[in-house]
Amino acid sequence: MFRRLLTSSLVMALFLTLIPMPFANAAAIEFTDTVQAQLNATADRAGGTVRGKLIKQYDDFKSERKEAMDWDDRISSLRYANEAKASETRKRISEIDKDKIRKLEDQLQAAKTKYQPLFNTYTALNKQIAAAKKLKDKTLSKMLQSQAGGMKLLVTLGREDIRNKQAALTAAKKEKTSKAAKVRTILSEIESYKSKIKGDKSAISTPNKLMTTEWKNFKTAVKANESARISDTLSRLLTLSGQILTKKKSIYSHEQKIESIIARANAQLK
To answer: What is the Cα–Cα distance from 123 to 139, expressed in whole angstroms?
Structure first.
């Protein structure tokens, strides 16, 4: 029973790690009606330009939060599309000139099958000639050599045909290897952008944490009707929000670069 519960817990934990969390600490910041009402009340008490400033700061922060989540959706959508396309491109690499190479392999095998009886007969005839020479049977040796002479040209042409087909197959395989290497080289450019994305995500972590703290300070200031403190916290929240937006736009730009790289790789496969 304990083992079953432990297994279930592990499975659930793994499942939770797979659920995308595009906006860290998103649940910590909620624009509730209560917060809005408290802010409005404080702003009304302050009046004048202070009122307008507080309302604008709050609305701007709400707008930027929504924009940040919109960027999350765009980033996720493009990232999943890029991953799917990159995976498909890598699969297509193994398919490069597949039909062409199979055709050349079939032609080579057909040639070998076609000429093998001729080669076998020619080999057997030369063995007979050697045996006749050992027996010092000049008449038989002369007759066999005459037959071998008549076959020699056909054998030479057959071997040349096989060599040509083998050369064509080898060249096609070499060309496939070259094409595949070129596509893989292009796709390898993705790694540098993934590294940049990782850096941007890491850079978002700090302002996200600070934003959670500032939001708590903001709610405390709102409850206390401290307009100056509210304005200060909103100012800091807007600064942090702006930093996050900049990084999210950067991440999206990197994903666009990856999209372009995949497109260039696919162009090599046409």
So the answer is: 20
Q: pLDDT truncated to tens, each residue of the chain (270 aa)?
A: 434 443 444 434 433 333 333 444 444 788 999 999 998 999 888 888 889 999 999 999 999 999 999 999 999 999 999 999 999 999 999 899 999 999 999 999 999 999 999 888 888 777 776 766 666 666 666 676 767 677 788 888 899 999 999 999 999 999 999 999 999 999 999 999 999 999 999 999 999 999 999 999 999 999 999 999 999 999 999 999 999 999 999 999 999 999 999 999 999 988
Structure tokens at 172: 């096609």
Q: Where do runs of H (alpha helix) occur along the chain?
A: 2-18, 33-46, 48-93, 98-134, 138-187, 190-223, 227-267
Distance in angstroms (rounded) separating the CA atoms of residues 228 and 217: 12
- With contact defined as beta carbons under 8 Å apart, do 39 and 54 qualify? yes
Query: CA dist 101 to 98, 170, 177, 268, 270, Å?
Result: 5, 9, 12, 18, 16
Alpha-carbon distance of 236 to 232, in angstroms, equals 6
The three-class DSSP label of residue 66 is helix
Phi, psi of 137 (to 5 degrees): -95, 90
- Number of Cβ atoms within 10 Å of the Cβ of 251: 25
Residue in this structure with the two tokens 């994903």, named with its chain if needed: 255
The single residue listed with the structure tokens 């304005």 is 231
Q: Give me the residue label for tokens 């959706």.
A: 73
CA-nearest of 203, 187, 197 to 240 is 203
Contacts with 53 (C-beta within 8 Å, 6 or more apart), sequence order: 231
